[in-house]
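[audit] Reproducing an earlier prediction to check determinism. Same input, same settings, fresh worker. If the tokens differ from the archived copy the diff job will pick it up downstream; this log only records the rerun itself.
[audit] input (164 residues):
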Amino acid sequence: MRNTRTIQFELYTHTDPLFPIGKASALDEIEFEMQGEELVLDCLLPSDAVSENKLVITATHVDARYVNFCGTVLLDDLDIAKGSVELVLTGSGDAGSYMTQLSLLGETGGVKNVVDAQVELARAIENHNAEELPYKKEQPFFKTLSMRLTAWKNELMDGLALQR
């Protein structure tokens, strides 16, 4: 049975008998909930989470080399008291499996805790405002250059097609 939208940090630990063989647990079977052009997951907070920590989540399609979706949440006292928080991811990508990484960052920005999980996306999401998304600014230079050259080539080809 799939867990429809909850991810947690303690999927398994080094003391878990399944950890050395990398055996996935039922908690790894997660699906994104779609709300318009956004993806939503619930996160059960780890025991070391405190107010003013930041959760950063990225999701990369298994066939991609760059981040497709991302989101950030600054934790407050209410989140800590509830023990969970709703994560909203924006971006665009194809349907399928996504390697999703969730990082808990402390006050100084250092990583306190991290978890990776495979999450399924039922249908493609095409966000036409993707150029404005924060993860696009953080792409390696070559990827950014390649994307811009492709966009320029497409515009040039469209212009030539209109002249005919």
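[audit] rerun output stored. Observation attached for the diff report: The first strand starts at residue 6 and ends at 8.
[audit] end
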